[in-house]
Amino acid sequence: MSTGITAFISLAYRRSLLWISSVLGFLLLLHALWSLASYQPQVLGARAELSASGVISLINLERTTHHLPALTPHTKLDQAALLKAQHMIGSGNFDHYYQADGQAVDPWQFITQAGYDYYYAGENLARHFHDSRQLVQAWMASSAHKANLLNPFYTHVGLAIVDGPFQTDASTNLIVLMLASPLPPGLVAADSSPQPERLQSTSLVQGESSPPAPAAYSPWLIAVTAAGITIVIGLICLRFFVRFGLLKLPPHDPRPPQSSHWKS
Q: What is the mean pLDDT of residues 74-101?
């Protein structure tokens, strides 16, 4: 009688253990799939950062992808972008055209103030970005910004990133991108050049709602996850085979094994 009860308990225990293993395996599989879906490769030593050289490199990469010549950095356009950024910080205005101290301010006056005689000119503005890639992606996602970045008439580029108190923010960053090409030889200077022959384009974007980059998972976690998936698949297959009679587990014998004694 006790042997039958013990065998029944043992069989129930094995079935319960198999069910629990299947459920845990399924949960582990879901976690593994979520981990793999969220994985991003991480370059050793790399980190999110915002830099003028990084932004310009990404812009030129987009232009090359669209079969356009790369833009050449120009120190006078860097100076023009810096002047505009400092003026926005001081006046509290985040726009291309605005009034400051009773005077109209436009982006092109900073280009000429820096000593660059432009024939085509454009300006992109941004704020609250801290990653070069996210900034360029945001510009490329906007038709106006994208048109500026991929304008075939521009040959030079300048960029300034200025941090400081701005409006209600104790500290923020303003990004000013100046795009231009110089006056062709033989044409008059900027102040007297016929305005209809010039192209002026502006666009701005704010990065306050820019989503954070997904967390990257370390390689060891991926290796453990892969091993877990293998175990889970094995448990599921075992459960399937036992459930449909394709695999029969050996009967459990509650009696301890008997030792054999040999006589020489």
A: 90
Rounded to whole angstroms, how far apart are CA atoms 85 and 110?
A: 10
Cα 204 to Cα 22, 32, 49, 186, 254, distances in angstroms:
54, 41, 20, 33, 78
Q: Containing H/E element for 239?
A: helix 219-243
Average pLDDT, the chain: 73
Cα(97)–Cα(193) distance, integer angstroms:
21
Contact between residue 139 and residue 93 where contact means Cβ atoms under 8 Å apart: no
Torsion of CA 143, 149, 150, 151, to 10 degrees: 100
pLDDT at 194: 38
- Cα–Cα distance list, 79 to 111, 148, 159, 227 (Å): 8, 19, 8, 56
Three-class DSSP category at 234:
helix
- CA dist 144 and 161 (Å) reads 21
Angstrom distance (rounded) from CA 36 to CA 252: 40
Q: How far, in Å, CA of 208 to CA of 160, rounded?
A: 19
pTM of model > 0.70: no
